[in-house]
Inverse folding.
């Protein structure tokens, strides 16, 4: 939040009760005696000069994504979102016609700084009306984007202008507030990151990951937005592992990872291997240091944003993924049958006479399936499987890797977070994993 | 919690180890050296004189609900709950035979004050036994209401007496602890609010909202309590939008909203538009100020109560709703088919020969459905739709509106939170929403 | 965490940046000026002398479970886990072929102390490969157990050696990171508790409870690991009520209960009756006192560990259970039909001609079902039902009882937390539950 003093020295002299209240209920209480004075309109606050990327803030990295460009017109940061159909690849082998913004799903990340005045044009190129809700952002009621309640829907072909001053910082989101089931179910969502104006510290690496979930039946070409319960494509920034770009950082970096969840129903517990983090931000609000604790898993509920920070002090390849079993699997793992423990030789023989080349899968577990060369339905991805330095990584969906290295290409290198090509190996103690010469204790354990 | 000193001056001289422990584990630790002295029975604590509404506390408002009347008999607050079948309207068009208390679901809100001694008669007018568990409330074991473990079930036709002293404050609940699946699935639940005895501050407006979920198949007359997964009527105080009463507050008010969740399986993330709040209470315990942070979404898990507070500093109409997509829709949005992108003209023609007036819905999205005059099955509600100042609000279910106004009818006005009738309009910046004369930046964005 | 000073006096002189960073991001910040110095390898830290149970820490009690024995070899604590098929009883009447460790599911609890150096042999006696991930534990990358990424899978018949120094304390877990769907779905998981080295206080009683969920269709002999949505056996340490061992404690004890959740998809809100607790640990990190609040329900998400502490100041039998309705029911409550309110006499007559002895169940609610002598399918358990001092406790699944007594058998008594045999009765105010002679207030309430 912009402090009273800072706002004054920056020339925003017209401190309103409204802006002051934002710095916390306690302060509000101190300021307001028994009979509360009604706050002035929140539209009174003066904007500050537009902040510059690199100089005033470290830009966010959106893995598999981009930030939305802007231009400054008369001291206003002007953005342009275009709602439209998108031909999207979730992972090699699986494409679908989705809806998104500016040619992509998730939409581009909007980045700005506390005190900036922003103007955002939204052009509707969908076959039905839409609107944009700026989720978590303090703004005048008419800018809130809720069709019917605060504005008319934007008809196909038209452009709507949203405009407001950013009076807070934090991880926020944008999404339609019209026919949400369809429009969000088809991929319309994006990050809206507001950096603090003059932070005491900045992360070295700052990542933004949007979590979402889809129902795409094998062979179909569109996600089904009417699915309510059982989703079969789980994504980070609309990509499923192995297509999720890893987060590559330098040993010793202070890393911030911001998660946003605009899925339909699942609250995702994201688990980080190898390091402890502190949750520093919940739904756009800074968590006070006195309330922070170390941990390794963060529950990001639907409609929530949460961020954690850690020091990348452990070199190697560390998984970061949703811990719900079926959220780290892809399409083909869903809707199978339990064959564990079934003696399949006889069955295979019977089936073979009907279906040449029939083979029962899963009778000793499902572990081989990622690796198996089996015929796949058109437009589908197997249940899991990425290539790792020690064989197949039998994960899918909401799974990615944090790669911590001593030396890195410069952050600006465009190929910087490409998939590694064969050069990746655990830097730590692979030598220690020698399975010869073990001494197993004898007595009972 | 009642402090040691306060309890003493109020005459409750017999401070027990039990009551002292309540003020926190740390304090308990200080009081108890290495070898812990077993606490005295918690039944020792003396009750305090019964507190008066208005004078000693600001009564809670239960939107679409009421508080349970009581009478004071020999210094005891005496309440009477009647468990019975209820003919309930969820929203215009949808009624069902439910089970509840005193003619309603959710049951009436029980309100009392820390230190009050309460006696609650429970009369069973159901066709099967029942009991009442006072969820979250510290009391003697025999009063806990768990049939089989702490009491026999209350047979149909009989009345049971519960009695205990309130040794804490906070947002709590009551519900059966016998055949929970049926009895809670049919609507038996209510709020039990215990106000602090001498709080430093009081909210100007204090709301209590019970979240629950139901399965009511179109055309049936009873909720199905056996549904485990897919609920199709999502409610606040047993009402679905547009039947949910808005929360009307005055500009500048300090507002507290208490949520309770006694649904069967969904943890609901409630999102507030337009203002930041602080979570001040979790499961009846005050959140220390050092641990509070600003936010806009609160996850209320099944069996939990959580409350937030905010200053109503932003005039206008602000949505407050569960963010799970299908929880802001009503019955008819469930169990439909994905028609997005399907060229329907041909299909319509074919179908028309079979079903006159057939019309494919949803081929350009589902946005028009709220508004559509189509034949509905008996006893059902469309997927969504309330009337707003700017057209249809295409939401349903667990959705309501916080209305912040400069001038209000007095709080006592019984018609006070009726639905607004055409006079509601955004007070903020509607004028700014002029879509003529926009200047769209040219280069690439 | 091990403090800098303590580590020094214990002879672990080589304080590394890595270990120092562990004590919190704030401290890390203080230590690292603008240009962060890359941390040294985390493998540098010196182990401490192995700690002794009883002397250096109070051992954890795993209800229905055991701790894994170890032997000390050259200052190293050596454990041996054997992954294998297990014939497991969930509750009397329901057995299934599961997968687990050392003859049981959940696997035995691994217990050690901060600073211990541990070596864990894992022998694979399953029909498919496996690996072990030490969930939440800080260790070298090659020890992380993620097949494909940090190691090759352990083939059937082989033994793998994991070895690392424990640089933290807290409640952690172990589970496979290969074919997780099958291996965790069949029961492979266990607790890994690391006690602090020199804690200021210790709990008098310390319990560890692993939450998991299964799909076992009546009549089948194996859990179905492919189920994604609807589980019908919900367990604490792989037992369903009434088979869950109660937690027996002495009046006045400081009690710690650690929950771990390695189910496939449900986040469980565990509700404690009768006492307030404080959440003291989340995902292995101590919650600072300034951020703790009193409560009665704790949401344990998938992949999470959380612990609470309370003073057992209320004598009696207090339920502790998941609050999701269908998680406190067993198999047979699932997949039934709604008969509430159906006039069944006519139907019964019709059915009787087809099915002699047919009886409609549930037409006045489901409350009688726990008690009903009805024919059950082979290998199945009824929806609920344990014997209590006041009749049937109609709960099942993820439900247990905290028994608080003035006098107890010594903790070492092996029969100590057997089921009570008829001697249990509420010690508190049963006498007060006299339903004769009640005075019901007349006017309106």
């Amino acid at each position: 939040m912009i402090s009273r003093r800072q706002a004054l020295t920056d020339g925003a002299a017209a401190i309103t009760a409204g802006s002051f209240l934002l710095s916390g209920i306690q302060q509000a209480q101190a300021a307001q005696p028994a009979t509360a004075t009604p706050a002035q309109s929140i539209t009174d606050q003066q904007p500050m000069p537009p902040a510059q990327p690199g100089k005033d803030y470290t830009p966010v990295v959106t893995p598999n994504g981009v930030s939305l460009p802007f231009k400054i017109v008369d001291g206003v940061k002007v953005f342009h979102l275009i709602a439209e159909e998108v031909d999207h690849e979730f992972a090699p082998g699986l494409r679908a016609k989705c809806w998104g913004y500016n040619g992509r799903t998730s939409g581009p990340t909007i980045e700005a700084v506390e005190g900036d005045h922003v103007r955002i044009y939204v052009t509707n190129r969908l076959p039905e009306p839409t609107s944009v809700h700026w989720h978590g952002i303090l703004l005048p009621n008419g800018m809130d984007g809720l069709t019917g309640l605060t504005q008319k829907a934007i008809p196909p072909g038209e452009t709507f202008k949203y405009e407001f001053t950013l009076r807070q910082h934090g991880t926020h989101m944008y999404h339609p507030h019209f026919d949400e089931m369809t429009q969000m179910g088809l991929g319309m969502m994006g990050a809206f990151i507001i950096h603090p104006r003059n932070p005491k510290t900045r992360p070295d690496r700052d990542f933004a990951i949007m979590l979402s979930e889809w129902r795409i039946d094998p062979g179909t070409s569109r996600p089904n937005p009417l699915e309510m319960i059982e989703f079969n494509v789980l994504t980070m920034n609309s990509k499923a592992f192995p297509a999720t770009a890893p987060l590559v950082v330098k040993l010793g970096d202070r890393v911030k990872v911001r998660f946003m969840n605009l899925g339909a129903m699942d609250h995702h517990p994201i688990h980080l291997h190898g390091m402890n983090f502190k949750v520093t931000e919940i739904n756009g609000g800074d968590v006070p240091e006195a309330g922070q604790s170390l941990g390794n898993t963060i529950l990001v509920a639907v409609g929530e944003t949460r961020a954690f920070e850690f020091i990348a002090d452990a070199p190697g390849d560390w998984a970061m993924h949703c811990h719900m079993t079926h959220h780290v699997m892809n399409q083909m793992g869903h809707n199978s049958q339990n064959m564990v423990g079934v003696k399949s030789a006889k069955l295979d023989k019977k089936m073979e006479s009907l279906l040449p080349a029939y083979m029962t899968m899963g009778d000793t577990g499902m572990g081989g399936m990622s690796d198996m060369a089996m015929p796949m339905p058109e437009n589908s991805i197997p249940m899991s499987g990425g290539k790792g330095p020690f064989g197949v990584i039998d994960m899918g969906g909401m799974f990615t890797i944090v790669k911590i290295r001593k030396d890195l290409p410069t952050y600006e290198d465009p190929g910087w977070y490409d998939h590694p090509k064969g050069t990746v190996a655990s830097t730590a103690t692979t030598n220690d994993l020698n399975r010869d010469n073990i001494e197993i204790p004898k007595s009972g354990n």
